[in-house]
Design brief:
The chain is of the alpha+beta class. It contains 9 helices and 8 strands. The protein has a domain at 4-73: Arc Repressor Mutant, subunit A. Helices cover 46% and strands 23% of the residues. The chain starts with a helix and ends with a strand. The model has no long low-confidence stretch (mean pLDDT 90).
């Protein structure tokens, strides 16, 4: 299981945050609103805390975050935000799961179909090749500063906390957990004051697709179109980027 594509995606998404803050704030606001529907206290609502952390990382203003929470809890009027998930075949028969947050599902469905068709793909069943996993990223700088590089005791503690796989790369470490163990492992890292780049439940492909240089360009063009769409909150693919 490789975390390389996850690091690459995170790096691209951070670049987009810098370039298009307005669109990103809309995405993160919707993410917070959806999470807040299950409770507006981030100390109790783990998903809300993760959404707020992501928004803060993008320097989203505090008042925007508070408004998004109030929309989710019903304290503030506004359009109803829905979470929709689409399965599709992308360029070179790649597989994608596309998660959207929207106030207009008809518009979003049409846009997702258009994005797939424009890339030579279509909607189609691919969920069979994915499973939900908790994924946590820790940067190489954070590992070095906490003396956690090649630290066997730390890795054993991670396993005891619920880690299934611990992958080290030049960018840092990728931790894989069962979806239900993500919160426990994140709390373990927080207790040790270890900063994480992200902590999310994601769809991970069981069988990955290797692509050539030209094929990779087509895939990246498609993923950039997804990232530039305000309704697309996230996407998951079987392509090894």
């Amino acid at each position: 299981m490789s975390g390389h594509s996850k690091w690459a995606t995170t790096k691209r998404q951070k670049a987009i945050v810098d370039a298009k803050k307005g669109a990103i704030f809309t995405k993160y606001g919707n993410l917070i609103t959806i999470a807040a529907k299950k409770g507006g206290d981030p100390a109790i609502n783990f998903n809300l805390r993760m959404a707020i952390d992501k928004a803060k990382e993008a320097n989203m203003p505090k008042e925007n975050i508070e408004r998004a929470i109030k929309r989710g809890t019903g304290e503030l009027a506004g359009a109803q935000i829905e979470e929709l998930t689409y399965e599709g075949i992308g360029p070179v028969k790649s597989q994608f799961i596309i998660k959207c947050l929207t106030d207009n599902k008809n518009r979003t469905a049409a846009e997702v179909r258009h994005l797939l068709a424009d890339a030579g793909g279509s909607l189609g069943s691919v969920l069979w090749n994915f499973e939900l996993k908790g994924i946590i990223l820790i940067s190489a700088e954070e590992l070095a500063s906490k003396n956690l590089v090649d630290n066997d005791d730390f890795e054993l503690e991670l396993i005891d906390a619920g880690t299934e796989n611990f992958i080290k790369e030049k960018e840092g470490a990728t931790i894989y957990t069962k979806a239900e163990d993500l919160q426990k492992v994140k709390q373990f890292l927080d207790a040790k004051n270890i900063k994480t780049e992200s902590a999310e439940i994601e769809y991970v492909a069981k069988d990955r697709l290797e692509v050539s240089g030209e094929e990779k360009d087509k895939i990246q063009k498609f993923t950039e179109a997804l990232e530039n769409n305000e309704d697309v909150a996230d996407y998951y693919t079987n392509v090894n980027l």
